[in-house]
Design goal:
With 87 residues, the protein is an alpha+beta fold. 34% of the residues lie in helices and 24% in strands. It has a four-stranded antiparallel beta sheet.
Length: 87
């Protein structure tokens, strides 16, 4: 499964995207934390005092998951593969 997170908060002109391949959420989180930490240090020094649990919560709120071409997870908009609500 492919997990992707994009951050542009406070730096809209330079979005940061991290993508990892993992078998499950736990494996993905470990890999994602490694990808995200340098970005946080460079662009979000205000988050330096956050605990790993707080950072994990933030990442899960921003990531999307793709399995077999369908996006799942944090972003459920139709553009990301989510369903359009019935009218």
């Amino acid at each position: 499964m492919k997990y992707t997170m994009t951050c542009n908060q406070g730096h809209e002109d330079e979005p940061f995207t991290a993508s990892v391949e993992a078998e499950n959420d736990d494996e993905a989180m470990g890999k994602m934390m490694e990808e995200v930490k340098p970005h946080l240090a460079e662009k979000h020094s205000d988050l330096a005092g956050k605990s790993d649990d707080e950072l994990k919560e933030m990442i899960v709120g921003m990531w999307s998951k793709e399995e077999g071409g369908a996006a799942m997870g944090g972003d459920t908009t139709p553009e990301a593969g989510g369903e359009t609500p019935a009218a």
